[in-house]
Amino acid sequence: MRLFKLQSMVLIAIAFVLGCSEYIIVGILDNLAKQFQIGISQVGYLVTGFALVYAISTPLITLAIGKKSLYKALLILLSIFIVGNLLTALANSYIILAVSRLITATSSGACIAVALAFANFIAPIKKRGWLVSWVFSGFSIASVFGVPFGTWISKNYGWRYSFYAIILVSIIILFFSILLLPKNIHQQASKNFKEQLRIFGDRRIQIGMFLPMFNLAGIYVFYTYLQPILSHILLVKENFLTLTLFLYGLMALISNQLSGKIASSSGLKKMPEIYIGQFLLLVLFPFLAVVPFIGMIVVMLLGVSMYLLNSPIQIFFLTVAEADYPQSLILASSLNSIFANFGIALGSATGGIVTEYFGLNKIAPIGSLYVLIALVLTLILERIGKLSTHKFNMI
After folding, report:
1. Cα separation of 89 and 83, whole Å?
2. End-to-end CA distance of the chain
3. Which of 31, 47, 108, 142 has the most CB atoms around it within 10 Å of its CB?
């Protein structure tokens, strides 16, 4: 049991450092815009590019892993991740910065997919929902501590040192991964890529994989531009910006923990109610933000709603794969991350367009349209998913 706890901590730490690297851009948009003398929306497109490469590369790499050792695959991916962040820290032009972010994104998606596959193998069935929610919470912990701390480092020492800190933490995590993670884990062998891809023929998967996409598209229209929203709409002073980002990250951490509880109880049944609430918050934000205190409450509630889907949909994918497509377990583990990042790309790109042509104040209502799509997809999945999900009460 002690070994399981230590292994769990390593997997959570991996998610944490991946989250720090992915989210840090949100906290240093202004710094990068000044450094490279470009518009804030152009820096925002780094989030879009990162998410697109993350989403496209992840299934290709997970398919290539096949029946190879997950242990070796994870170590290689973490090493590439470290190199990508080092290139970011050393970047002397926007082009090099963008390329370095794409290298980091290429390793990040497959890395979390393999980490989640580890979680599925090492956790007892009763602990699986708990561990999956905590691995996802690693990303929220990055929002709570990593992004505000990285923002503080950037403000006081320069944005490059934020990435040096990420590199240092990554090396420590790589060391403990070598030391603690099991070396003999493989997914079930498949004859070829085509056999692994059979999972995409399942209607439950076809509908379910678009759910995290539109779920995060709705939030990331807003979240990508959270720093300027806080500064220019809610009039948060620069001295309090780090504290506010910390509080938002704390709400996101609570969101992931609530996600684990939802997965263990009502699962996806609860999501329609959540999406209705999220829709109303986004639509009403421009009106409520006239009073900054009330606007801040809305921002924090959006933070709480941000990751509620994570654990229910992850367990849903794993349940379908275990029952009907065991040769596709790693691919199934990656579906949430893949399509969540398509959603991040869609949301951040939409946010950039809206900011450039209509202004920050129109961002939230546009995001609500994606939330409506997520609501419809959840209701469709509820109708078609009941037969194979009794075990985890997912629908």
Report:
1. 10
2. 31
3. 108
Q: Which tokens in the block code for residue 67?
A: 């029946």
| C-alpha–C-alpha distance, residues 302 and 143, integer Å | 14
Alpha helices by DSSP H, listed for the chain, are 2-27, 29-36, 40-65, 70-90, 94-122, 125-141, 147-157, 159-180, 193-196, 203-208, 210-223, 226-228, 238-264, 271-288, 292-305, 310-324, 329-357, 363-384
What is the token pair recorded at 350? Answer: 């939409």
323 burial (CB, 10 Å; 0-12 / 13-18 / 19+) is exposed
pLDDT in tens, 204-229: 898 999 999 999 999 999 888 888 89
Longest CA span, the chain: 60
Percent of the chain past pLDDT 90, that is, above it, reads 38
CB 187 within 8 A of CB 318: no
| Phi and psi, residue 124, nearest 5° | -60, 155
Q: Which residue has the tokens 């890529």?
A: 193
SS3 395: coil
